[in-house]
Amino acid sequence: MSCFNLSYIAERRKELGLSYKDMAKLLGFSNGSVYWKYEHGVYKFNADKLPMLAQVLKCHISHFYTFELAKTESEV
């Protein structure tokens, strides 16, 4: 199972020295507070934004996901 990793996005943004306002401008959002809502999970990133997000954060789209193995009945 995969989970979208918002903490990676936040950490990568900080590593690159980008503000919420910078991200909003680069991704075409109206302002920094709108981007903040995406980064904090209030809104979900649409799939069409992921290539642009990866370009801005200088990473691959696969970095946005964490992969976890499902528990089997024997582990429960």
Please give a structural write-up:
Helix content is 45%, strand content 8%. It is mainly alpha-helical. It has one domain (2-75): 434 Repressor (Amino-terminal Domain). The radius of gyration is 14 Å and the shape is elongated. The model has no long low-confidence stretch (mean pLDDT 92).
**Uncertain stretches of 5 or more adjacent residues:** none
- Tell me the structural class: mainly alpha
Q: What is the CATH level 1 assignment?
A: Mainly Alpha
Strand order of the largest sheet: 1-2
Number of domains: 1
Number of helices: 4
Terminal residue distance: 17 Å
Percent of residues in helices: 40-55%
Average the pLDDT over all residues and give the rounded result. Answer: 92
Radius of gyration: 14 Å
Question: Tally of extended strands?
Answer: 2
Strand coverage percent: 5-15%
Which fold name fills CATH's third level, the topology? Answer: 434 Repressor (Amino-terminal Domain)
Gross morphology = elongated
CATH homologous superfamily caption: lambda repressor-like DNA-binding domains
Q: List the secondary-structure elements in sequence, H or E.
A: EHHHHE
CATH architecture: Orthogonal Bundle
Largest sheet: 2 strands, antiparallel
Fill in the keyword field for this structure.
mainly alpha; 76 residues; elongated; 8% strand; 434 Repressor (Amino-terminal Domain)
Task: Present the secondary structure layout.
Layout: E1 2-4, H1 6-15, H2 20-27, H3 32-39, H4 50-57, E2 65-67
Antiparallel strand pairs: 1-2
Helix pairs in contact: 2-3
